Amino acid sequence: MPKSTYYNIAKAKQKKLIDVGVLLFSKNQFEDVDVQMIVNLAGVPRGSFYAYFENLEDYYNLIITSLRNDRVRIVKTLAEGFDGSLFDFLIKLFEYDITLYAQDERKLLMTHYLKFLQTRKMGSFEGTVYHPSLRIGIYSVLVSLLMNNDETSQLDDMKKASLIDFAMSVYLATYNVCIHEKMSEADSLELFIERIKIIERGVK
Question: From residue 134, how far is each of 79, 83, 196, 202 by CA, in Å?
Fold first, then answer.
């Protein structure tokens, strides 16, 4: 993560560095980005980069953390006032993701990040999109939705966690298939609904 000096600079400058990272790592694999490209776009001296970050990977982790934080905010916003079941919400969230990332450069950022993790055998893509942590993930939002369903509201904590983890595994696997196969938004959503309904029927 960034050095303490990064957090001492103006918020606008912090945002600029993050925006540059999103742009560069969306268009390029991690290995194809260098510090000079970053400082040129961000308009900061090369020395300042190393005052803020240990290395390029340190900077990259900041970009991914920002992506994860955005993800939590999006999920919480979509869940506000939602009174359906967990399964209904996941369909809504999947439609949002497929629509957004079919049109947005962040689709490539996530795709490149998955490759980065695979080649380095570190962490998980799931940890960014869905992190089973009450502190930094979306788990607390999802578990609250289980209370909107008569069948799932009676589950104990361990079974709720297992159900959410399984549903999110299906979610992420389906998302990756749809992106890899370049499926249309309509076909992607149809596939996910088909899969998530199998889980929902199994709970009832």
Answer: 16, 21, 23, 26
The angle at the Cα of 129, spanning 197 to 201, to the nearest 5 degrees, equals: 10
Asked if 142 contacts 86 with a C-beta cutoff of 8 angstroms, the reply is yes
Question: Residue 96 carries which side chain, given as an amino acid letter?
Answer: Y
Where helices occur in 80-184 by DSSP H, the ranges are: 86-103, 106-120, 126-129, 139-145, 157-180
The answer to whether 85 and 152 are in contact (CB under 8 A) is yes
Residue 3 three-state SS: coil
The CATH number given to 6-203 is 1.10.357.10
CA distance 96 to 103: 11
Predicted confidence at residue 122, as pLDDT, reads 46
92: CB partners within 8 A, 6+ apart:
78, 82, 84
Query: How many Å apart are CA 6 and CA 51, to the nearest integer?
Result: 8
Domain boundaries, the chain: 6-203
Tell me which residue of 16, 54, 11 sits closest to 38, measured CA to CA. 16
At residue 28, the pLDDT reads: 86
| DSSP secondary structure of 13-74 | HHHHHHHHHHHHHHHS-GGG--HHHHHHHHT--HHHHHHH-SSHHHHHHHHHHHHHHHHHHH
Stretches where the chain sits below pLDDT 70 are 101-108, 110-137, 149-151, 153, 204
Copy the structure tokens of residue 29. Answer: 């694999």
